[in-house]
Design a protein that fits this description.
Structural class: alpha/beta
Order of helices and strands: EHEHEHHEHEHEHHHHEHEHEHEEH
Number of strands: 11
Radius of gyration: 22 Å
Helix content: 40-55%
Distance between the termini: 40 Å
Shape: globular
Length: 394
């Protein structure tokens, strides 16, 4: 099936960047490790088939034992191998904003790719399926890789693991991003941490809303839906667990796009800005799998508007900053987003004079015309070109 023919209605995880993290201990039963690897295969295939994107690492692939059929202790190569199989048949979705895979790695980790994985690694890059982001040259810090993965991710899935996944979970939760852990007693490849994925799963059962939020119409079902992810120590059919996990992810609150823009109706350019956001930006954001937040239109969680603005801005995944009218508050919120290392798309009405070098921050200049489809296509081209630009602040 070609990606261009895939109905958009099936792309229920469109552009959601999902990181599957964790590991197993060599002391864990090999069949349970195989169960976890099969679960990762099913989750990866389901994510890609629904228009989602996967975040991975690379490097070594330690095995459970020296046996010929021993399962791997880590999951990155399982994600990459499954992605290669799926994408070779379907290709990425035609409206995906960027490659379906993002690999965060280091020079040293890339040098440690096993010989039998080299062809797979080269094929994924040659086919344009993977974007590679490196941490600082010469560095090999796992914490630096995890920080970058967390900055890019929308959802974290955890199976086993130790201190590394605990750090990742803290990073995602600090941004109010969902963390979904499976109750598999896998241990950790380094035998470290305070319980890893199994501990997080137990805590989630007691307080699901701390770890994820469903859309408002589904939130009352959070506890019961999460209970369906229980593997009972690997006794539940793995395909059933994967299906329930994918269903839960489909019902998660979508990543937020924060609008900072001219909102004063007394300003001459207001009707044109309003036209651009209602006719072009709103449908585009919804189609690409996000939810908007616009001050004055969408629900606030704080009584004080200034606090509410920066709270929503602080935890947004993307900021669209429209500088038409050159309003001081828009510049302030743009600066805050850049300092926060949030993905920013800058827009303005054609003819707007920017008070800084536009080469540093590309800007999409729009016009009000009757050609809605044409203007939407221009915005889509700008989005796809710039949405994954590295942050200005390192």
């Amino acid at each position: 099936m070609e990606s261009e023919n895939r109905p958009e209605s099936r792309l229920t995880l469109l552009n959601r960047r999902i990181l599957i993290a964790g590991s197993s201990s060599r002391s864990t039963d090999a069949d349970l490790v195989r169960y976890a690897q099969r679960l990762v295969e099913l989750l990866t295939a389901g994510i890609l088939e629904r228009g989602g994107r996967a975040i991975v690492g690379t490097g070594k692939e330690p095995l459970h034992s020296d046996e010929p059929d021993a399962p791997a202790l880590l999951f990155d190569w399982t994600v990459l191998g499954t992605s290669d199989q799926v994408l070779s048949m379907t290709g990425p979705s035609s409206i995906l904003s960027g490659p379906p895979l993002t690999c965060v790695t280091s020079e040293k980790a890339e040098a440690e790719i096993p010989t039998d994985r080299r062809d797979l690694w080269n094929r994924l890059r040659q086919n344009g399926f993977v974007e590679v982001e490196y941490i600082r040259p010469g560095a090999r810090s796992g914490a630096m890789i995890r920080d970058q993965q967390a900055r890019l991710g929308d959802v974290l899935l955890v199976l086993g693991g130790g201190a590394g996944v605990e750090h990742l979970a803290d990073q995602f939760l600090s941004r109010r991003l969902p963390v979904i852990a499976f109750d598999l007693p896998l241990g950790a490849s380094r035998d470290d941490g305070t319980g890893g994925g199994l501990k997080i799963a137990r805590e989630t059962k007691a307080d699901p809303m701390t770890y994820f939020r469903l859309r408002s119409e589904h939130q009352a079902l959070a506890g019961s839906m999460y209970s369906l992810l229980s593997t009972r120590g690997g006794k539940e059919p793995v395909d059933s667990v994967a299906a329930h996990a994918l269903e839960l992810m489909e019902k998660l609150e979508r990543p937020m796009v924060f609008y900072t823009r001219l909102v004063n109706p007394a300003i001459e350019s207001y009707p044109r800005v309003e036209h651009f956001f209602r006719k072009i930006v709103d449908p585009f954001v919804d189609r690409f799998g996000y939810r908007r937040h616009e001050v004055g239109l969408d629900k606030l969680e704080h009584a004080f508007i200034n606090l509410a603005i920066f709270d929503q801005l602080h935890y947004s995944s993307i900021v669209i900053a429209d500088l038409t009218g050159e309003r001081n508050n828009c510049y302030m919120e743009l600066g805050y987003a850049l300092g926060r290392r949030i993905q920013v798309l800058m827009t303005a009405e054609a003819g707007t004079k920017l008070p800084f070098d536009p080469n540093a921050i590309p800007c999409h200049f729009w016009s009000v015309t009757e050609d809605i489809a044409g203007e939407t296509e221009k915005l889509e081209t700008f989005w796809n070109t710039n949405i994954d630009r590295p942050p200005l602040v390192g």
